[in-house]
Design brief:
Strands 1-2-4-3-5-6-7-8 form an 8-stranded mixed sheet, sandwiched between helices. It contains 10 helices and 8 strands. It is of the alpha/beta class.
Length: 331
């Protein structure tokens, strides 16, 4: 498959994109965007792709990448997680990310997946970044979703922010959660403890313009802004990642999975990504060095192009193209 670069205005919603609100079973509003392939590819549709971003993320940050997959023939959808982005908040603090338990998000993705599958053409694939990658992996392990392939971009399979072993870090966060309100922020600003806002970009991407995209969207849509996580979120994150890394969990995955990480990641544990890839029966792994920070899909072109090329090639190998209607031939 030949890689073709797609360029769009990253700071406006594409004219052919449709933003909607989908409601969970308990009525919670989930913000969603859909970008149909037909108008771009002359009616040819490769299948359908659901993209789910990371903690504190918004789908606006990934419009350029969603447009790339749309141009590849995928009907692309993305959504903000409950409690962040345009999907409301779960505490009285607008800028603090909070959740009662990660199982709530697993219930949400399971319901969204089922509803989305009925409305979009097969084959269905799923891609997630950071926390989104972790939650996708857990939903697959728990048999709550059934994609034909999955891509995990710098997935949060282990936490690196506190610099502690998982068991000790979990114990520490349980103590910290109990010292005050569980919803209080675990740190002041940026993306991890003791990290000032001034160096936030150095945790995320080398690309100045792509980093500034997020700040521009925050200015356009102030309700999307989110900062640190709550202590309860951190404790639940330790619990959830330890759950997925337990013996037998990765070995049970039957979905072809591509994992992408970077040794320079200061937010998630790249060693945990490598370990998971070794344990998943049908997996592929792409690992960068110092040239890539956490947001590999928003990195400088030399990194991002390689990421997209790898994803496109993986999907070409692992996901059968649909039959052209009425012809019996591959589309």
């Amino acid at each position: 498959m030949t890689y073709q670069k797609v360029t769009i205005d990253r700071r406006r919603i594409p004219d052919d994109a449709v933003e909607t609100i989908w409601h969970t079973a308990d009525g919670w509003p989930i913000r969603k965007i859909d970008m149909a392939a037909g108008g771009v590819t002359g009616g040819t549709v490769r299948g359908s792709m659901l993209f789910l971003p990371g903690r504190g993320d918004i789908y606006e940050k990934y419009l350029e990448t969603l447009a790339h997959w749309q141009a590849q023939g995928w009907n692309v959808s993305a959504a903000d997680w409950r409690g962040q982005g345009g999907s409301g908040r779960l505490s009285d603090h607008q800028f603090v990310g909070h959740i009662d338990d990660f199982s709530t998000w697993i219930d949400d993705i399971s319901a969204l997946w089922r509803a989305w599958q009925t409305q979009t053409p097969a084959p269905h694939v799923i891609i997630g970044h950071s926390m989104g990658g972790h939650l996708i992996a857990r939903a697959i392990i728990e048999k709550r979703i059934d994609p034909v392939a999955a891509v995990l971009s710098a997935p949060m399979l282990g936490l690196k922010g506190l610099g502690l072993p998982a068991s000790f870090g979990h114990a520490v966060t349980r103590v910290m959660r109990g010292l005050g309100k569980a919803e209080r922020p675990a740190w002041k600003v940026s993306e991890k403890p003791a990290s000032p806002l001034a160096i936030r970009q150095t945790l995320l991407t080398h690309d100045n313009d792509r980093y500034a995209d997020e700040l521009d969207w925050w200015a356009q849509r102030p309700n999307l802004v989110m900062g640190p996580a709550s202590w309860h979120w951190v404790e639940r994150a330790y619990d959830s990642t330890r759950r997925t890394n337990a013996p037998g969990q990765w070995e049970s995955v039957t979905v072809p999975t591509l994992l992408i990480g970077t040794r320079a990641d200061q937010l998630v544990d790249n060693d945990a990504i490598i370990d998971a890839a070794a344990r998943i029966p049908d997996s592929e792994l792409l690992v960068f060095g110092r040239e890539a920070r956490h947001e590999v899909l928003r990195e400088v072109d030399s990194v991002r192009d390689k990421v997209l090329q790898t994803i496109d090639a993986f999907l070409a190998r692992k996901v059968p193209a649909p039959l052209a209607e009425g012809t019996g031939a591959l589309a």
